[in-house]
Amino acid sequence: MRRRTVMAGNLDEILEVTAPAPAAEQAPGPASAPTAPAAAPLDQGLRTEFEFELPRGYVDEAGTVHRHGAMRLATARDELRPQIDLRVKENPAYLSVVLLSQVITRIGTITDVHAGIVERMYATDVAFLQDFYRRVNGEGHTRAAVTCPHCEGGFEVDLSGGRLGES
After folding, report:
1. What is the structure's pLDDT at 161?
2. Per-residue pLDDT band at 131 (split at 50, 70, 90)
3. Under 8 Å between Cβ of 123 and 115
4. Phi, psi of 81, deg, nearest 5
5. Residue 47: CB partners within 8 Å, gap ≥ 6?
6. Would you state the torsion angle of the CA atoms of residues 148, 151, 156, 159, taken in this order, to the nearest 10 degrees?
7. Rg (CA), the chain
8. Going by fewer Cβ within 10 Å, which terminus of the chain is more open, N or C?
9. DSSP string of the chain?
10. Strand order in the sheet with 104-107
11. d(CA 86, CA 10)
12. What are the beta bridge partners of residue 142?
């Protein structure tokens, strides 16, 4: 694999050439023409972070239970990095622990989520997070089709932990 080196001087030249013209140099337009905001995002349709609520909750060293959290979409790097992790090479089952620790952005007030935290979670919460990861990254949503055991009626539930009736 060959790498290309970009010098800082070259980068400055590229930025100077491609920079938009200052407002004073632009051609004057009609006085009543509305202007678009300079830093307006083009598309806000892609959702990259999903909130969840753990079935049991993570209990930290102080005994505080953390149930609400957030997980971001995984990148190719997130899925490749665990493959070179020595813990995963020694024990392939550790793959999900490393992977989840990379994509979970917070659990309760904890924002530094690492493999040690995922290791200390209850098995039911880890299984929930594995399914949540699969749904978010494979299917693009957090909804699941279920069947009522009493009336046999089918409906959807949102696995992200929202209360009934909320969207």
Report:
1. 55
2. very high
3. no
4. -55, -45
5. none
6. -20
7. 23
8. N
9. -------HHHHHHHHHHHSPPPTTTSPP--TT-----TT--S------EEEEEEEEEEE-TT--EEEEEEEEPPPHHHHHGGGG-HHHHH-GGGHHHHHHHHHEEEETTB----HHHHHTS-HHHHHHHHHHHHIIIIISS-EEEEE-TTT--EEEEETT-PPTT--
10. 49-59, 65-72, 104-107
11. 39
12. none
Among 65, 128, 69, 48, residue whose Cα is nearest residue 96: 128
- For residue 155, list its beta bridge partners: 146
Alpha-carbon distances, residue 42 vs 19, 33, 103, 162 (angstroms): 18, 20, 25, 28
pLDDT of residue 54: 96
Q: Within the chain, what is the greatest distance between any pair of CA atoms? A: 71
Please write the tens of the pLDDT for every residue from 3-47: 444 444 444 554 454 455 554 444 444 444 444 444 444 456 778
Whether 65 and 71 have beta carbons less than 8 Å apart is answered as no
